[in-house]
Amino acid sequence: MHPIRSLLDQIQRNPSLPALAGCLSEMTFGSLGLRAGAIQARLRQWPPGTMLIHGHKETDTVAAMLACAVESRPFCFVDRSHPVARIAQVGRIAEAVGLIACSSTVPEVALAVLGSRDCVDLPLQPWERPATDSVFYYIFTSGSTGEPKGIAIHHGNFAAFDVWYGAQLNIIPGDGFHLNHANLAFDLGMGDLWPCLARGRAVLMLDHANNALPRQNLRLMQGYSGRLLSGLGTPSFLSTLCRDPLFEQRQFPALADLYLAGEVIPPALFAQLQQRFPGTRLWNGYGPSETTCLTHTQLLAGHALSAAQLSCFEPGSARCRVEVWNTAGEPAWDEPGEVVIFGPQVAAGYLPADLPQNRAFVERNGERCYRSGDRGTLDATGNLWLRGRLDRQIKINGNRVELPEIELRALCCHGVNEAVVVVSCIGDRTELLLFVGGTTSTLALREYLARHLPPYMLPHQIHCHERLPFNRNGKIDSARLRDDTVRQEHP
Description:
The chain is α/β, with parallel strands linked by helices. It has twelve helices and 26 strands.
């Protein structure tokens, strides 16, 4: 059954059960239905097309998504922390016909605005299940062309994900809460919401502005300590929570399942979580955004697992098949190559449709598949061993970042002649160092980037030089820049 159909059943059968909670407000399933119905009634007065949903972790943001889904209207969530220029870019690429404003702030973009706060509660009108190949939602990731690229997730894609992942959560309606920390513009944010709500488990939405402030998040979580049953988080987020001694089993005795996804799990973090939560099942998750949230989950058992073991996945519960292709584009076993994913979770492709990156979506023997750009190995038993990236894409706190996008945006700033981003890893912390050559100042460049890039893509350090050094190949010597910076900071 489609998760939206299941969620509508929860609204009818269990209207008094909690559906959403967080730092801003709480909402029952019945109230969620009424708020979605209010927005739905207004949407019916709009021309067909994609809607941007602007806000944060307001309950109305979820109601707006549900209203769009019931109307078979694609939506794209844009967080209020994103600069106006980027929101406008996303709206243009998604060909949005309007914006649903779910918070008090409204971005100044060239789109008609529907204010959710002006909508009067109404029952939801009946839903007709859309075609499996119609778009459910778009998410946008960093793009190497200098502009963000959209990923179209179809209703069929998400239903294929929901059927196995939701069942794995083993939910009884009204049994408790699932922890959501991810930005709702992020694929894991969608993966948190719909499978849980569709089965009657409420979602506790953390304000991701507090992701670096563990005590703020823990105070909210403690209010639901006996009812917090599951959660999904990036290793970076959980590592931040582990800085606080309150993040342990005695404070959250009901926590049964904790999923880690979006990044490689450091062995030290896994050991720490095992020590703090001996009664909690720890799961490792893998799956590119282009294959709908997750394609693999691996129950982690045992002690002192190595980094390699924490990057290994058995054939998953998902209806996805994985191959590893060598440089000739042929399946290979027991040798490194590119991870290629087949199955119904493979997205329709990128926006804009003419992006060269759409060549990653191909067909092999009549099956659609996605060339992930991940480097991996398949062993003789079918286990997938991940071994990093083939390109210059990295993850920061679970958010995918194309380093060329930052460089190209920096080059658009007046006074910048050269730009290179270098990744610095110190312990469990990953930082982006931007080096530029030219006449601009650090302050001017930082202010410029803040107007055009979302917060998670902003460099942690900016170093301005008159010119950047080159290596023997005539390319910017990024290794030298990184090494010089480390020496200056740690003489």
